[in-house]
Amino acid sequence: MKKLSLSFYLRDDVVKIASELLGKVLVTTWNNEYTSGRIVETEAYAGQWDKASHASKGKTPRTSVIFEKGGTAYVYLCYGIHEMFNIVTNKQGVPHAILIRAVEPIGGIDIMLRRTGKKNFDESLARGPGNVGKAFGFHRRQCGHSLQSEELYIADDGYSVDKKLIVASPRIGVDYAGDDALLDYRLYIKDNKFVSGKKIN
DNA sequence: TCGGCGATTAGCT
DNA sequence: GCTAATCGCCGAG
């Protein structure tokens, strides 16, 4: 497995990067607990003009990390409950970010089960951004963490997603953003069970 | 300093 | 389908 290089994250086109992240492997190893999974759903947040992005309100204590250079982790608390994991992209000063919305678990499933409080492995283990945060042990302490480190990184294991299976759609939960809520900035792998947004129960 | 609210989810009706 | 859970951010006063 090969870690993605810094230059991967520093490029301009955040939607393109979000689509290329599909099929890549997310790994966290903090506390000597190794967890990994394949990214199957992402959402792009493209800068200050994008009303759905936290960066649209300008640089504040919470959002300042999004203005950092690409390859940095942005983790924040949503609804007081959910730790959401984002990847910062583009060069320093340009607030682009990609939200990881769903992951297909590969390694450390027992650890994910313990963290999420679930009893059995199923497709909901890391489906939805709140669950991804829980399963991989993310915390806002990790905000600003580098994605080139041993504790947290994204790797290419040679797996590639058929372009025909990559679907673009409007983002979820951002209706307040007006016209920007209609942009096709959500990307996911078609027919993958681990993708959020549809009810399975 | 204070109050409203959010890139959500699970569980009940 | 509806709502509680739950806390830090940010704008208003």
**Euclidean distance between termini CA atoms:** 34 Å
Instruction: Estimate the mean pLDDT confidence.
Output: 96
Shape: globular
Amount of beta strand: 25-35%
- Show unreliable segments: none
Number of strands: 9
As a percent range, the share of helical residues equals: 10-25%
Structural class by SSE content = alpha+beta
One letter per element, helices H and strands E, the order comes to EHHEEEEEHHEEE
**How would you sum up the major sheet?**
9 strands, antiparallel
**Which value, in Å, is the CA radius of gyration?**
16 Å
**Total DSSP helices:** 4
Topology:
Layout lengths: L1 E2 L2 H4 L4 H8 L3 E4 L6 E12 L25 E7 L3 E8 L6 E12 L1 H8 L12 H7 L16 E5 L9 E4 L16 E4 L12
Antiparallel strand pairs: 1-7, 2-3, 2-7, 3-6, 3-9, 4-5, 5-6, 8-9
The protein binds a DNA duplex (13 and 13 nucleotides) through strand 4, strand 5 and helix 4.
Task: Using brief descriptors, characterize the structure shown.
9 strands; globular; single chain; 201 residues; alpha+beta; nine-stranded antiparallel beta sheet; 4 helices; DNA-binding
Describe this structure in words.
The protein is 13% helix and 29% strand. The protein has 201 residues and is of the alpha+beta class. The chain is globular, with a radius of gyration of 16 Å. The mean pLDDT is 96. The structure holds a DNA duplex (13 and 13 nucleotides).
Summarize the structure.
With 201 residues, this protein is an alpha+beta fold. It has helices at 6-9, 14-21, 109-116, 129-135, and strands at 2-3, 25-28, 35-46, 72-78, 82-89, 96-107, 152-156, 166-169, 186-189. The protein has four helices and nine strands, in the order βααβββββααβββ.
